[in-house]
Structure formats: structure tokens, C-alpha cells
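Researcher: I'd like a structural prediction for the single chain below. Treat it as a standalone chain; there are no partners to consider.
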Amino acid sequence: MTDVAPPQPPARRGWLLAALLGATFLGTVSNNVVNVPLRQITDDFDVPVSQGVLVASATVVVLAVMMPITGWVSDRLGRRRTLVGAVVVLLVGTVGAALSPSLPVLVLARAVQGLGCAAVPTAVMATLAGSWPSHLRSRVMGAWGAANGIGQAVGPPVGGFVAGALGWRAVFGVLVPLTVAVLVLTVLVVPGGRPAPSRLDGVGAGTLTTGTALVIAAATAAPQPGVPGWVVLTGVVLGAGVLAAFVAGGLRRRDPFIDPRQLIEIRWLRSAVGVFVQQSSLAAVLVAVPLHLTGARDLSPGATGLVVFALPLVWAVSAPLVGLLSDRIGPRPVLRLGLVMLLLADVALAVVVGGGVGPLGAVVGTLLLTGLAVALVQTPALTGATRSPAGQRGAGLGLFNMMRFVGAALGTAAVAAAYPGHLSVLFAGCAAVALAGVGLSFAGRDVDPVRPG
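Model: Treating it as a single chain, here is the predicted structure.
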């Protein structure tokens, strides 16, 4: 793995872990804090929900597309510089979102936030993997998963309560001091490491990001009113063609942006598909359920935030324990268990949410099950990715994280297409994707981890 900082002494690791988990928490909250106030935003700008969902999807789309590039930047410039730059960009986007005079400007500001967030996961994962010994890898990845879970736990209720009391613009205002605090801590304690001068394979990077952007843009545009079907189909076909060119070019070049052969190595593939499945279901839940609660059930933003809080609360509490379990029995069986539980949760959501207004307790129960499933999938998937050959480079970790947020972008776009009358179909589709992930978890054999070097 390039740009590996020397192992940190135990006393310094505490501050380093606080900085890395703080950046993770900030990125997660910045991403999901608008989910509950989304209806308030659409009412304020007098736009339909199908357009308002762009406020959520803009961040996710930019996150997904830019992650491999920011992974390469992390190797090239060093992790501290990358993290500092990312937090500064995130601060600019947050201020812009708070001051947005129209929906297009807000969507643009959210895209800027996505650009800042894109650099965080890869730099944090690589720093964690390089600063802690291998036998502690699952535990620190469990802590990273817990920070994600806490961010998911805090974002929706904070967004709901702040929007209910002060309006949706204040939701972004409360993030500004947190962003400044994370920036200061990052500058002070994150090691600089050794930047790895390397040539950027511009063609490979360009075809990967362009192809992914075309596919996600087509999926995002599909449910928008007035977008003809041929435009969507053209975007999908062009995107698939450009991605095929990325694979073909990577197989020919001596030093490709990412070697496609490493992407079919079972640890990376199993982990990447696992987080794709997890994130697509999670995004669908975190957007569709608040819309269902504030719409069909007429709950307030604050009450909706409390209900949704059940999912990330279980996620945050479970993630460190999942790390210990992965160390004891191995990440693969834990990943498989999580995918099975996610499949069951999606089926339950298709019945409870898609089937009409049932007991609110049933909604909470399915959210609890989803939160546990997410924790069981995420930690072993992260561990597997960092142990794979592709995970030894920033671009490879970036592509792994791209898979996470491509899943999230497609899950969010699916909500726009399914809401309000086809939520049962939405979650049935999520269940089918989870079933495919379960099948892949049985493929290949377990191999020894790759040591960073």
C-alpha cells in the first residue's frame, strides 16, 4: 500500500483514531442530514418529490464517481493533504447549501459537498490499515463502521429537529462548526506519510469515471418528469460501452489506473458486491421510509427522525462487536450472515412499508433488523477489501468505495421511481439484489491477507 505512515505509538493512536472517525462521522452526517427535511425543502421551493430527491442524490452521485480519482490523489499527495483539502471543500459546500436561493443552486452545493466527502473514506481506510497492526484490522474497521453508524444515527433526527425548529437551512448551519473542528484536528494529528509520485493513467481514470457517471445519471434521470425513455437508454448503453473500454484498456496498459484482473480476485469482488448490496438497500430505506412516515403516516420531521434513529442506533452499537466477531471466526461467514439478514429485512419492508399503513412498531422492528444487517455486512467487507491486492492502492480502495455509493445512488434513484405507489416493488428488488450477494458469498476460497507494503 502506498503512502503508508509508520505504525503509530499507542498513545498517539487515540488522537489519530479520533480525527479519522471524526472525519468519517462528518462525511456521513453531511450526506444524510437532508433525508428527513426533504419534504420541507420540496415544499419551500414548490417542486415535486421526484425533483427534490436530487438534493440527496447529487451528493451520492459525485461521491460515487469521484472516489477512485480521490483515492489516487491520496496516494499522490499524501493522506493528510487529501483529508485537509476534502474537509475544506466540504465546508464550502455546506455554507453554499445553507445560503442556496433555489433548488438548482442547492443541488450544486450538495454536489460540492459530495466532492469533499469523496476523498474521506479511502484516505481514512488506508490510514487505519497502515497505522494499526494486521491483527487489529477488523477491530479498527469495526470502529470505522461504528462512526458511520453514529453518523447515520445522528443525521436524520438532528436534521428533523433542527428543520422543525429553525428551518431546513439551519440544518447546514449546525454542520459548519463541526467541520471546522474536524479540520483543525486533522491538521494536528493525521500523519503526512510518504506521498507516492505516480503517473495518472488519464484514459483509464477518465473512462471509469465517465462510464460510471453516465450509468448513474441515466438511473437518476429515469424517474424525472419529462425525461424520455430513449435518453435514459442511451445513457445506460453509452455508460456500459465506456466501462467496457476501461476494462479493455486496463488489460493492455503496463501501469493501468486499476488493473481489471485484480477486481475479480475473490476478496475484493466479494467485499465490493457486499457493500453495493448493503448501500443500495440502506439508501432506499433511509430515503423511502422518512417519505412514507411524513406522507402516509403524517408524522412530524422530529418524530420521523426518532423512528428512523432505530436503524443507525443498532448499527453503531453492533459495529465494534462485529469487528471482534470477524477476528474470531473470520470475515466471510459474518458477511454472509449479514447479507441473509438484509434479505429478510428487505422482504419485511416490502410487506410493512409497501403494503400500506400497518403498525408503527413493525416499521421500527424492520429498521432494527436492517441496522444489524448493515453492521454485519460492512465491517467484514471493509476488512476483506484492505486485504486484497486491489486494496493496496488508493485507486483500488477508491473503486471499492465507489461501489458503496453507486449502490446508494441507484437505491436513491429507485425511490424516486417507486414513491409513493410502488414501495413494495422497490424493497422486493432490494431483496433480489441481496439474494445475489448471498450467492456470491459462497464463491471462491479463503486466502491469507495481503500485507501492506
